[in-house]
Amino acid sequence: MLQTLDTQEKEQDISEEAEQSLLFTANRPKMIMERGEGMYLWDTEGNAYLDFSGGWAVTSLGHSPAVVQDVLKEQSGTLIHSSPAFYNKPMLEFAKLLTDISCFDKVFFASSGAEANEGAIKLARKYGAVRLNGAYEIITLTNSFHGRTLATMSATGKSQWDHLYEPKVSGFRHVPINDLDACFAAISENTCAIMLELVQGEGGIHIVDQSYLQTLRKACDVYGILLIIDEIQTGIGRTGRMFAYEHYGVEPDIMTLGKGIGGGFPLSAMLTKKQYDLFEPGDQGGTYCGQPLAMAVGRAVVQEVIDRKLGDHAHMQGEYLLLQLRRLSGTFGLSKIRGKGLLTAFDLPAPVGAELVARCLHKGLIINSPSPFVIRLMPALTVATADIDQMLLILAEACKEIGIAAS
Ligand SMILES: *Cc1c(COP(=O)(O)O)cnc(C)c1O
To answer: Listed GO molecular functions (predicted)?
Structure first.
């Protein structure tokens, strides 16, 4: 007992000192996460947290899934890294798997979502250079999120970033979601692509209309410009289909994947059709692009999502989650309950998002508030009905405690 206390105190000391060594970029709560299993995380004090942020829409198979542990063990015993100059077996097999299950023919692998989007932006600019007389502008949406590199921040339509890290990368024009007139007005002879999320994730779960996307597709065909869909948050079963574009009856020219594709391992991909295989050696690459460990993990995660039909499961559980949220909504004044599959959100009657997140965390539940009036839920695709019921109990208690109610 004494020994446990000692260790705990020591851990506390170490953490306070160590915190001083981290560059400050985020307000993090005090607890230190130590272990994960399925829907739960545990901190160093042994407290359990039911995770309805899914590691930020990343842990598609839940925390520390056995398949990922096994494949890491096996692949790390065989080959951890060769070099970006060589093929490796998992790289070839994983690329083949992704092209088999999508409308695309070619894959470029990277480590983070922003990097995959950088690849998409570069490919669109290359296309503009060789096929459209040097057109380079990309139309993106307000309220969108495409990453944190300079180019992807410039592509992102987030007003808080408008004047951050100036000068921005030029060549991006932002238009409101589901507004065809605004998009058509922005298209010019300089345009090489339109880039969008089908469900805006970080923006607070705003869904692109089917007719809007279908019309954009036709416009892209008419003008010869590329349609880029950022599926970093929506891809790999999250919205109830393997890829969100499947809901729309539309095929993009380029798609990017990240987050859930690695189940927690840093991995992303940019996919395109064979007619846009335009890079020449040296144009695009990276030390870890197609890295064997990442490739083996990604292949295992995607295969698991296919074998266990986790897209269908996400669809069913998402419907149940929305239904139950609607039943709670009257009591606490929750509104605009929305989502696709397990990418869901609702609005609060007051700007208490951060307070509600903190209150839930204290009670052992992790949720996310992308803005003060919005709560977003994106649990693992493997979430059970009992987990959803448990989440709703804690959420209701927390809503009661902070005193929100229907007006
Ligand atoms: C998270 C996210 C990104 C950025 O991915 P990182 O891995 O953080 O670089 C880009 N686009 C969308 C839609 C995202 O949700």
So the answer is: identical protein binding; pyridoxal phosphate binding; transaminase activity
